[in-house]
Amino acid sequence: MECEICGKPVPEHNPIRAKIEGSVMVVCKECSKLGKIQKAPPKPKFVQQKNKQRKNSSPKRNYSRNDEPSEELIEDFDIKIRRARESRDWSREDLGKKINERVSVITRIETGKMTPDIKLTKKLEKALDIKLLEEINNVDLNQFVNSSSGERTLGNIMKIKRK
Ligand SMILES: [Zn+2]
Fold this sequence. Notes:
The chain is mostly helical. It has helices at about 30, 45-55, 75-85, 90-100, 105-110, 120-130, 140-150, 150-160, and strands at about 15-20, 25, 35, 70-75, 135. Among the domains are: about 1-40, no CATH class; about 70-135, Orthogonal Bundle (434 Repressor (Amino-terminal Domain)). Zinc ion binds near residues 6, 28 and 31.
């Protein structure tokens, strides 16, 4: 098999097909640089692994399995709750009354000694009009999808081929 551009021999078992000026040709490594190599990008294997890890990990929270697994309590919930309460000029007693909890519970949450469960978190969100839960999935996936398309992947394939 010969390169359709320069005539150099091309390995039979692993010919390089590149799209050059609109047509696909069998070419040698050198000439493949002139066009785009015709090869599907590799399947994103690690996306699935990531999902698996997500399910098995983060047992820190006490949320039961039925409680929206895509949401997680933000890290600085204690600070956020206290600031929101103070900005309303509420005492811990006031907040406790509004969400039907004892003052000691509010105090423990605000000092980070206690993590509110999902029910209590939602009550706090409502009473203080703040967001305490954040969505934890999809972000990584989207980033991956964007970076796996287009020139970058083609460039990677060329690099691998050249070795
Ligand atoms: Zn060539």
